[in-house]
Amino acid sequence: MEKQKTSLRSLQLFAALALAFFSGCKSGADNDRTWAVYKADANSSNYSPLDQINVSNVGQLKTAWTFAINDKAPGARPSQCNPIIVDGIMYATSAGQSAYAINAETGAPLWSFDPFNGEKGGEVNRGVTYWENGDDKRILFTANNHLFALNAHTGKPITSFGNEGKVNLRVGLRDSSENIFVTSTSPGIIYKDLIIMGCRVPDVYGAQPGYIRAYNCLTGKLAWTFHTVPLPGEPGYETWSKDAYKVVGGVNNWAGMSLDLKRGIVFLALGAPSYDFYGTDRKGTNLFGNCVLALNAVTGKHVWHFQTVHHDLWDYDLPAPPNLVTLHRDGKDIDAVAQITKQGFVFVLNRETGESLFPIEERKVPASNLPGEEAWPTQPFPLKPKPFARQWITEADLTNYSNTDHDSLLKKFRSLRYEGLYTPPDLKGTLQLPGTRGGGEWGGAAFDRTNNFLYIKSNDAPDIITITKGDQQVPAMEDSTRKGGSVSQLETVERYANTDQYLNVTGYKTWKDPSGNPAIAPPWGTLSALNLSTGEYAWQIPLGNDTARQQKGAPETGQEGKAGPIVTAGGLIFISGTEDKKLRALDKATGKLLWQTTLPALANATACTYQVKGKQYVAISVGGTSQNPSGFIIAFALQ
Q1: Within-domain flag for 330
Q2: Coil, helix or strand at residue 271
Q3: Fewer CB within 10 A of the end CB, N or C, for the chain?
Q4: Structural domain harbouring 112
């Protein structure tokens, strides 16, 4: 009995010391919360008001600390986490979906939480959400199909939340079952005592619809649900086939969301209906697929929507959260929503009504030749701003690394159906540009409220759509996993072999020549500065460089990348994500490179910046190496 008492006293003493360490770290932190939300703030701005690191001294940046993660097997995709910082504590997730609290000044670990108890698990995850009410401070994050609530001080599950600290996201979808796949790629967002959640579902026939749900942060109880594929009697039901709501999936918010705290409106970027490339079971425009959707944050009721693609056949999901912006026009401020797209468009919409602030034309687009398919005859084209990505190529744009490779590209190009943007999938094959990887990607754009500029990372990455019927011989293909989902193309083909479903067996894969070179001439990735008040671009530069393929004397090639930029009051843009493994600092006024460093691995994540004890840091999640496959979080500061 006495031994048990001694052990209890030891545990109590250890807990008290741990709490004192945590509190001490907090007390000296300046209570900085300039990056306390995924993508900086509820506006999804990727903007920081900090200016200690600026255009005059950024060249002096050095590594301040490195936090090595150790929870992931070799071969896993790198972390995509955008860490948040609250009162000197950094909260982050790893590629293995463990959660961490780290001293943001030193990189020392404070606690960690493994949602799988040592078992294999983990899906794409981009960060956590912080909620507090007085001394009750919580970290909410997802791992596989569960939403967890952790004590922000200790990392322990809050057992009064849901079922012993977690909520099963499978419950409450169309077909609640232990056999369905659902998780959440991007963190939820907080409005008062609610956490509003999107979800990720596979891009396959029979997938679940991606309902939007809000849960009580204290109890985990479901507060409201919005049906993104409307049920009979709900607005938008008439834009689908009669029974589509029973079988069609997708229309999910995997890319994240924004929140107008003053108006109490949450803005969501919704994905395409599934199946993505053949929609005979979903004839119509398919609301709320591919919509910017505004909902009442308290009730989940529809406020407005704007559809960017009608009856999507190209997997043109809205890839990033809407940026909440304010435009200056004719001496007036106009609150708006700016939504980037994979197609390379920017839609700028009135925040209260959803009306476009620039002219938009509904233009006629090519018809489908697939049996039973009814492509929508028109699509919306903004007249301004101009596209930030290439939307048209000719034979002259094909690369020529060798005569054999060029001849192969030319032969393929001439064999495909290609009539520009929105050429539908076809049995002869279709060229798609921008492809499924954009254009715009999930890293999103950064909005600088001081100059009304939107900074946009873009890819020029064409796809080949190869349509095959499930009961036909499927061509050999690689297992190219879809970036936003968990079901690979190969798994999709295997699942629907010997059926009469039409499948795209080469999706989510950039078109290259037989030697592995890009099929189209550079740039393959760009960064643009768009003045949202005027709709004009101030500059566009290639971002990233493939030195092996850069021609002598030519500009940098640019490279594909999914991470987004951040912008600061110090006049800087920080951005990573390119295959050259660089983290760069650019002058936001001109795009001029001011500083760069080579990271130990690809940083397929958006950076963050914060302040502790009066000192500014820039931090980023970095992928794994052969020595440490789990990856790192690396912070930089002035020395």
Answers
A1: yes
A2: coil
A3: N
A4: 35-638
